[in-house]
Design goal:
The chain is of the alpha/beta class. It is built from six helices and twelve strands.
Length: about 350
């Protein structure tokens, strides 16, 4: 799923770069860029791995919306039985982020795999360390799970969904792994992301109903490359009643941020981490308590799109490639990680 390339001018055994990447822009001349796909490209060089993705076709497609549509079965027999506590006024502009706790953040960090075609993901531990740090700064209770098999991931997610999140603002799940179109890899096998987030729908996890459920996915979604387009300077152009109870869709209040668009590679630097996670951590560290999440993710996309380009001269077909993240949102309000220290004690 990923291309991993060693920089001849970089000592990969050094760990002094792992904690200094947040907020630092990466220059284009470092060739430690890889993609989160599997297989090999470039013949005998052995420095790049790419994917020959399996395309799993269905009527709705294999993206976030498609998986939700294909995986969801309407609970017609339980009509009227799904009831959850109202945590936000009906037409409130922003999510209620004044609970006692910010919420759980689960990070599934995959470096080594039992699948023979999958190479180890050098650089993922840098991503994990940086993401852990910034999420703690945003008051999340962070737990990291390393190289889990699929059954262990499901068991962990099922346990998390069974908890009472009444005192929490939201929940966050990050997955750092290999991937292909519509699938992510655990240590031992592939699975659909829908198998994970379906545990947190409002009918399955009532204590998170009406609260943000955030998923960040660092993985390839295919084996296509984005060569980019050169932009040249030219001429400048200008040109109800809030107290009433209400019903929400079971899939409301989800946000899924993928590191790349469906069908394309996702790049990772072996010493500095993936382009997407570098950019996400930089934005969360700089603006996580100031900007709302969709504005913040727009600037994450800008960083990835503008500041990064693959440098793999020994593998010409992978050289000077680009990437753009892809965000699927079912959020119904503005989400901002307001500072917990400024919230009066006892307010919910």
């Amino acid at each position: 799923m990923e291309n991993t390339m060693a920089d001849p001018n970089t000592n990969n055994s050094s760990s002094n770069e792992s904690t200094d990447q947040v907020g630092i822009r990466v220059e284009n001349e470092n060739p430690d860029d890889h993609t989160d796909a599997f297989g090999s490209v470039g013949g005998s060089s052995g420095t790049a791995a790419a994917s020959s993705s399996s395309h799993h076709n269905n009527i709705y497609g294999s993206g976030a919306i498609g998986q939700l549509a294909n995986g969801y079965k309407s609970p017609s027999s339980s009509y009227g039985k799904n009831v959850a506590k109202m945590v936000t006024d009906r037409h409130a502009a922003e999510y209620n982020m004044r609970h006692k706790n910010r919420g759980m953040a689960l990070i599934f960090n995959h470096e080594h795999f039992e699948v023979p075609t999958l190479k180890s993901r050098a650089g993922t531990n840098v991503d994990c360390e940086n993401l852990t740090r910034v999420l703690k700064q945003l008051d999340f209770e962070v737990t990291v799970y390393k190289d889990c098999r699929y059954k262990d991931i499901v068991r962990t997610i099922e346990l998390a969904a069974s908890q009472n999140h009444g005192d929490s603002d939201c929940i966050l799940v990050a997955i750092l792994s290999h991937g292909e179109m519509g699938y992510i890899y655990a240590k031992d096998t592939q699975y659909k992301l829908e198998n994970i987030w379906s545990f947190f729908t409002a009918n399955h996890c009532p204590s998170l109903a009406g609260k943000p459920k955030l998923f960040f996915i660092q993985a390839c979604q295919g084996d296509r490359l984005d060569t980019g387009v050169t932009m040249q300077r030219g001429h400048t152009e200008t040109d109800g009643d809030s107290s009433m109870s209400y019903k929400i869709p079971v899939h409301a209040d989800f946000l899924i941020a993928y590191s790349t668009v469906p069908g394309f590679y996702s790049w990772r630097n072996t010493t500095r981490g993936s382009w997407f996670m570098q950019s996400l951590c930089a934005e969360l560290a700089a603006n996580g308590k100031r900007l709302d999440i969709l504005t913040l993710l727009t600037f994450v996309s800008q960083r990835v799109a503008v500041d990064f380009e693959s440098c793999t001269p020994d593998t010409p077909e992978m050289h000077q490639q680009k990437q753009i993240p892809c965000v699927t949102t079912m959020l119904t309000r503005i989400l901002r990680f307001s500072d917990k220290q400024l919230v009066p004690a006892g307010r919910v």
